[in-house]
Structures are given as structure tokens and as C-alpha cells.
Amino acid sequence: MSRPLLIRGGRVVDPSQSLDAANDVLVVDGKIVEVAPALSPPDDAETVDAAGSLVTPGLIDVHVHLREPGGEHKETIRTGARAAAAGGFTSVCAMPNTSPVIDDPAGVGYVLAQGAAAGASRVYPTGAISLGQEGRNLAAIGEMIEAGAVAITDDGHPVMNSGLMRMALEYAQAFGVPVADHPEDLTLSDRGAMNESLVSTRLGLRGKPNASEDIHIIRDLLLAELTGGHIHLQHVSTAHGVEFIRQAKARGVHVTAEASPHHLLLTDHAVEGFNTNAKMNPPLRSAADREAVQQALADGTLDVIATDHAPHHYDEKEAAFDDAPNGIVGLETSLGLILDRVVGAGIIDLPTMVERMSCQPARAFNLPGGTLAAGSPADLTIIDLDRVWTVDKTAFLSKSANTPFDGWELRGRATHTIVAGKIVWSLDEPD
Amino acid sequence: MSAPTSALGKDLVGLEGLSAAQVTAILNTAEPFKEISERRIKKVPILRGKTIVNLFFEPSTRTRVSFEFAEKRLSADTVNVSASGSSVVKGETLVDTARNLEAMQIDMVVIRHGASGAAGFLAERIPSNVVNAGDGSHEHPTQALLDMLTIRDRLGRIEGLRVCIVGDILHSRVARSNIYGLKALGAEVAVCGPKTLLPIGIEELGVTVFPHVEDAIAWADVLNVLRLQLERMQAGYLPSLREYNQVWGVSNARLQQAPKDVLILHPGPMNRGVEIDSDVADGPHSVILRQVTNGVAVRMAVLYLLAGGAPEQAEAAKEGGEP
Predict the structure, then answer these.
(1) Mean pLDDT calculated for residue range A38-44
(2) Which residues of B fall within a CB distance of 8 Å from A320?
(3) What is the mean pLDDT of residues B236-251?
(4) By CA distance, what is B235's nearest residue in A?
(5) Taking the model in full, what pTM does it have?
(6) How far apart are CA A293 and CA A241, in angstroms?
(7) Nearby residues of B244 by Cβ (< 8 Å), 6 or more positions away
(8) How many CB pairs under 8 A join A and B?
(9) What is the mean pLDDT of the segment spanning A212-218?
């Protein structure tokens, strides 16, 4: 096995153990052995000096698009896993809307194998809810879970058929996985390109009203309540949406939900000038919606921060707004944005950030990690809170550069990403 | 080129953001150009040697022909490229099409495209002057300018007039450009139509909304009646064209209830018996054909100004060559 690793002198924040103090972390054979002050290293140990830095359970992003198979011009599992590591993520969950769709165990096995070969962030596959994500018949859910899928989702294609959604929520319970849904009533949002607002009116773009998302959120919550299943609502963007989730949680409905960095930070004004890097689905909404999403992140209504990392080739975004695809890359900007603009703005504190970016994602998707308890996998992120850097899309490890955050100056960045006790990425010693 | 920058900047993508002085400059520049089209030999050498491409990704007869007359009467060399006859249908992107034309050393592009923002997209990426001849539901600035010139011809002013745009505002680039241009010049602007065809938040642009066309007619000095695309009924915005005519159609019976004469504009092509009745379209208060005539003069003015011409020298330029 690899050499033991001693991470010395960092501020260790692990909400899973209510821990926030200067400590050393000792890792042996890919597992956490001990978290305590002033540990003495084994003779052959590699040491990392983390004095002045934050040490956290490895960050987890439960919503990324790695595009492989079928979209390798945008991203591969290898480039995506390396981009994740560079952003401080030790685990990511790859969405199944590839070509072909991941709707059988062979597809799940392929994603797992490519992820392992990348040798960077862990890559957990998710499987489709319906065959081909066509919204008609259930995919091979049990076999996919057996093969290693950690959730089922038709992300990219909302499950419009309520009867099918009910059955997915019932059927998935046997396997203990969340059913993740992209909440959008397509009959209300059809062909919409952005938020329906004064901005869409001025620009002459077709709008998606908040109600198109809200109606679907309510439906999913009701179906989770009916079935007792676990609904995971992706990238919630509306004020009413978070309120409905808050109420459902109070009733005991098994629901987890995501906030994305872009919905936490931007509004539909970013679309001005027909900026295709501000085109995503759900769209950027109003300032009131943004504040509601921030508040819901703070009070725990939204459990996890997830990027919806959606790489697109520059040719695809270099188009008229209606013709450009939805989505932006997020893996390499998420942590800096959250530290600088969410924690820095006082919306949440650091331990809450670690909850939302590590502990709760692990719990929601039943992943190992999200804790530094002894015996856990040694997945850690070391963060320099004072590192000031400028987002430079030309320096991304991702294959794609479609970001509205290029040029933003941010304070706080991952310096080391450690997976199973191995440093898979180091800011100052990039491979 | 006499001047590197024009009174309008490099391009005319829309009227949003243009000042009253800029809009007035275009209208004033159009005045001396009207006369060229009345000559026996309808040609002046103002744009001699300039190459203009009319790049039409959507079918258009009126606008394309109007631009082409404007260009030819100013002695420009013009090429028409339409989507159906170009490599666009072979999957070439908008930016590649433009770059290929640019590589042939052109001076101006007039673009019509089905996507909002397409004209601005092109303008940001090529050094040629770009004129928006309609982009999606966004803007159609030369149409609004010719509408304003026609109103000013008949009523002597824009400021203080009440102009109501009637019909499918949601999908209308003509409506948006008219709202921006008319408001810049101090008109009061209203819109009227079924709520399914009114975009959300339109009041925040400073326009009044009339649900009933009778109320709009009673209020207005000018009605600009928009074409109702037949597809709107198929898409479920309306129950039927017959019902639209009965509820929102502009008819003589309705106009006769108005306290004063109302000037009638329509950007064409008309659906007679749907949004406008024939006796209104052909009646004494209709300036629909005058709009078409003015369209050529306004487009000449825009091309002249973008080429660097000075508004106050337009009269002299007609006889003196390049701007």
C-alpha cells in the first residue's frame, strides 16, 4: 500500500463530528486513522503542511455532466474527474444523459471503469429512471444499482408522466437510492430560452415562468409523500419552490434538494446582451428568487450545493441565444465562488459550507465520505482561505470553458485534493 | 470611407438605447432621400463602390426588396443571400457564413434572422457595418423608423402623440422597436391584444395596456396594426381567426365610434379580414402604402449614416458622390 500521510496543523472542520479545531490528520492505507493535535508521524509518512489552511472531508458534487460516452468533444470522464479534483472535489456523480443514455448495467460499468482509470476524483455513475430517458418504461434500475449506480435520474429530461414518477419512487425504495428529478413542466416552459421576466420581454426571448418549475416541484413532493420514496430535487431556482420544499420537510417528506452556485449568485440580468454563458436550465431567475435560494441554503431547506457542471464546446455556445445549448461548467469555480461570495457575504458560515458541499451530499446519495471519522475513506480537501485568484477559463482542466464567471477575482481555493489517501491534485505542484 | 465612425456607431441593431437626437437624425436624413425615388433616373452615387450583402435567413419580400432598392438607388453593389439557397441549409453556422462573406471584402451586411440577438451577434464578430432587418422577436429598427417617418409626415410630429400597437405583441419585433423609438421621441405608447399575445412585464417599458380594442381606438391618435401570424392559432394562443377579428379586428364600425380621426399603419403583409378590415386598409386614414414608400428613404438614410455620412450633408451628398 501507499505511504502513510500526515496532514499537519490545519483547521479541521468536520461537521459530521462537530469538529472545528487545529488538528493533524493521519491517513494509513487509504483510511482515516486519527484526527488529533500534534500526532507523531510514522517513520515512512509523507507529510503535508496545512498550517493556516482549512482541512475538510472531501467535497462532493452530486450533479455533474461528464459527457462520456457520446459527447467527448465537450468533456471526457478523465478530463471531468481531473477538473473536479482541481476544484477540490473528491467525488462527483455523473448524470446519465449521455449518448447512449446510461440505462443499463453495462453503461454503469463503463462509467465506473473510466472513472477509476482517470485516477482523480471518484466518479459515481447514476442511471436513468426510464429507458432511453424517454419517460415511458422504467430502466433496469435494480441491475444498475447492483452495478454501482448511486441514484436514478432522467436529468435533462423532466419526468413529465406522473404515473411513471410514482412508480420510480416506489420501485427505487427497494434499492435505497434517491430518485433525482429536474423539475420542469415542459408544457409551461416549452421552447423557453430564459426566465420569463422583463428581461425576456425586452430581448424578445421566449420565457420559462417560475410556475413551470414550481408545479413540478409540488408534484414531486406529493408523489414522495404518497410513496414514502426519496425525491432529490435538482438545481432549485425559485422562491416558491424552496418554500414548498420547506413545508414538505416540515411534514416529514423524504426530500433532499440542490442549490447551484449560479442560482445563488446570478440573476437573469446576466443574459443581457444575449450572453449564451448565462443560458442554463432552470434559467437564472429574479433577485428575489436568488435571495430565497440563498436563504434556503442557509436554513437547510436546500441540503446540498451542486454545480450541474455542463460543459459545451465553444462552437456550440458561439451561436444565437435560442440556438445555444443550456448549461455552464462549474467544477473549477464552485468552491471559490461559494467561499468568496456566499460564505464571504455572510450567508452561511464555513462549517455550514462543509455540510452543504460534503456531509449532506454524501448522506443524500449514500456515498462513503463526507466525514473524517476514523475508518472512513481518506477523502479530504485542503483549502487556502486567503488565496486570491482570478477565474481564467483558458486554464481550466475541463475540456470546456463555458462560464459566466471568467475574470472574477475570488478569495479561497483548494490547494490539495486527496482521494483514498492519495494526493490527486495539488495547486502548487500540478502534474 | 470619409469618416470611421457614424452618428449611429458601427451598426444599427435596434432602437433600444438610441437617443432622441439619433432617432431624429435618421428621420431628418431620410427627408432629402425621398426625392431620389421620384426621379426618372433613380440613382445617386453616394455608396458607389460599396458592397452590401442582404443576408436573409427568413423569408421576406417587402423588407428585402426595400433594402435592395435603397442600396441600388445609392449605387451600392448588392448580393442577396437567402437561407434556402445558401450553405446555411448545409449546416454552416451563422458566424461561418458571415466570416466567409467578410473574406470577400464586403462593407455592410443587412441581416434578417429568426433568432433574437442574431444581428447583434453578427455585429460583434465582423468589422462590416451590420443593419438589423429583423431578429426573432427582438427588434426591427428600420420598420419602426419608417413607421415614425410616416406618422411625422401626416401629423407633423411624434412628441405627445398617442400611438397604440394592436395585435401579437409577444412575438413582434416591430412592436419592440416602435416602443423604443416612439418613446425616445416623446410619444405616449400603448399596446392592445389578447393577453396570450402580450409579453409579461410590458407595462414596465412605460406602455399602457388596453385589453379592448374599442378603448384603444378611443384613446389613440395612431393605430399600428400588426399582422397576426396564422401559426398563432395552431399554437393555441387564440381560438380562431374569426374570433380574433370579431374581438380585436380594426373595422370601420369601430373607428367610427372614435372621437377623432385615427391614422392607420400596418407593417404588412396584411391579413385582410383578420386584424384589419379592407375598408380600413384602403380607407382615407390608412397610410400603409406611404409606409412602404418611406421604407426605401429610411433605409437609404441608415445606410448613408452607417457609411459615415453626416445628417446635415445628406442633401449635398446626393449630388456630390461619396459621403
Answers:
(1) 90
(2) 94, 113, 115-118, 121, 136
(3) 94
(4) A190
(5) 0.95
(6) 9
(7) B194, B228, B233, B238, B274, B275
(8) 67
(9) 98
Instruction: Report how far residue B12's alpha carbon sits from residue B51's, in angstroms, rounded to the nearest whole number.
Output: 17
Residue A93: Cβ within 10 Å count:
26
- In the beta sheet, which residues pair with residue A232? A180, A256
The helix/strand/coil state of A430 is coil
Taking the C-alpha atoms of residue B264 and residue B226, their distance in angstroms, rounded to an integer, is 11
Output the CA torsion sign for A146, A149, A153, A157: negative
Give the whole-angstrom CA distance, residue A406 versus residue B265: 47
Distance of CA B178 to the CA centre of its chain: 8
Average pLDDT, chain A: 97
Interface test with A, best of B130, B132, B137 (most A CBs within 10 A): B137
Sign of CA dihedral B170, A293, A158, A320: positive
- Are A168 and A222 within 8 A, CB to CB? no
Would you state the pLDDT for residue B4?
A: 46
Asked if the model's pLDDT at residue B322 lies above 60, the reply is no
Residues of chain A positioned with their CB less than 8 A from the CB of B174: none
What is d(CA B282, CA B269) in angstroms, rounded to the nearest whole number? 14
Per DSSP bridges, beta strands B222-225 and B263-265 are parallel
Q: Choosing from A155, A308, A340, A384, which is the catalytic residue? A: A308
In whole angstroms, what is the distance from residue A339 CA to residue B239 CA?
53
Between chains, do A320 and B115 touch, taking CB under 8 Å as contact?
yes
Q: B168 to chain A nearest CA, in Å?
A: 12
pLDDT at residue B82 in the model: 83
CA-nearest residue to B177 within chain A is: A202
Which tops the pLDDT comparison, A59 or B98? Answer: A59
- Tell me what the mean pLDDT of segment A216-235 comes to: 98
pLDDT, tens digit, 9 for 90 and up, residues B155-176: 999 999 999 999 999 999 999 9
Return the residue in A187, A188, A198, A201 with the most chain B beta carbons within 10 A, the one to mutate for interface testing: A201
Question: Looking at this protein, which amino acid is placed at residue B123?
Answer: A
| pLDDT at site A431 | 60
Q: Is A308 a catalytic residue?
A: yes
Indicate if ipTM > 0.90: yes
Cell reading at B310: 453626416
- Using the Cβ of A174 and the Cβ atoms of chain B, whether some distance falls under 8 Å is answered with no
Element containing residue A9 per DSSP (H, E): strand A5-14
A203 shares contact with chain B (CB less than 8 Å): yes
Q: Does A195 touch chain B (CB under 8 A)?
A: no
